[in-house]
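User: Let's play a game. I give you a shape written as tokens, and you guess the letters that built it. Ready? Here's round one.
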């Protein structure tokens, strides 16, 4: 069976591509414009994949506030065209989505069937993509959040850099979520896709985040600890200190009950995953990443 992976050059896509068995087609952005419905159909007809995994997305959360039409073209309209193309050839479609489809006003983990209510333009465009995929009988949505990894800018790498540049770092302590390693998520998505291909995983929504919960402040302290530094150098602050165009959900903890229906276990705890990922993360620390708040896009892709 052939896999087709869009957005394979991104942080999650890179890890996912490395974990798929057999043949995988991974067109680069310049080779396949997802906003060109005809090009998408032609690519699907040419390669005839059994499963399409869409990691491509507009992830510039703040820019989406003033460029929502452009974000929707990628996150919504293009996904609908991809679903239509998959229906034509009978392929299964796995769409990566985000915690931003929720309003962040909860206090308990959001189950997969919780009503959606995005608070920003990015969330609205991602929700449009979800709806297009879920209207397709072979469509799967994997929502994730607070991603970090070795192959792209993210919060963990930002903390590694700032630890070397500043004596203290102010990090928000009023946003709660689940830091999620792209390596763990890629393992789970690859397993889900394989079980989907064999008919062993029911279509629908799955939540792909690490177990447990913390704040950005808590995550930053753990990074400093792993660096062998005093976590007291990380100082808690509030989101109103960092005003941004797009509202961020204050609570982004997702429930994981649906994995059992696919015969798969949820992911391990966020702290255990961070420790496992640490050697590759420290080696890949980048220089141009946000100093606080959420990783670019807040979630994937």
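Assistant: Ready! My guess for every position:
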């Amino acid at each position: 069976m052939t896999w087709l992976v869009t957005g394979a050059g991104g942080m999650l896509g890179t890890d996912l591509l490395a974990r798929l068995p057999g043949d995988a087609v991974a067109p680069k952005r310049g080779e396949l414009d997802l906003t060109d419905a005809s090009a998408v159909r032609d690519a699907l007809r040419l390669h005839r994949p059994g499963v399409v995994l869409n990691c491509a997305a507009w992830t510039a959360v703040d820019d989406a506030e003033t460029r929502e039409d452009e974000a929707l073209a990628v996150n919504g309209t293009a996904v609908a065209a991809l679903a239509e193309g998959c229906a034509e050839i009978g392929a299964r479609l796995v769409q990566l989505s985000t915690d931003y489809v929720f309003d962040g006003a909860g206090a308990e983990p959001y189950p997969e069937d919780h009503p959606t209510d995005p608070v920003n333009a990015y969330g609205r465009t991602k929700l449009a993509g979800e709806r297009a995929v879920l209207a397709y009988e072979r469509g799967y949505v994997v929502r994730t959040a607070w991603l970090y990894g070795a192959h792209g800018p993210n919060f963990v790498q930002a903390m590694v850099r700032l630890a070397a540049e500043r004596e203290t770092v102010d990090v928000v302590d009023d946003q709660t979520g689940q830091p999620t390693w792209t390596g763990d998520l890629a393992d789970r998505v690859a397993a889900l896709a394989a079980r989907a291909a064999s008919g062993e995983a029911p279509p629908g929504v799955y939540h792909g985040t690490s177990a447990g919960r913390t704040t950005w402040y808590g995550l930053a302290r753990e990074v400093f600890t792993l660096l062998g530094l005093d976590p007291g150098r990380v100082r808690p602050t509030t989101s109103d200190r960092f005003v941004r165009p797009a509202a961020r959900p204050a609570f982004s903890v997702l429930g994981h009950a649906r994995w059992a229906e696919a015969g798969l276990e949820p992911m391990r705890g966020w702290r255990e995953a961070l420790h496992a990922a640490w050697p590759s993360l420290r080696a890949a620390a980048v220089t141009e990443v946000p100093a606080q708040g959420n990783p670019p896009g807040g979630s994937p892709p």
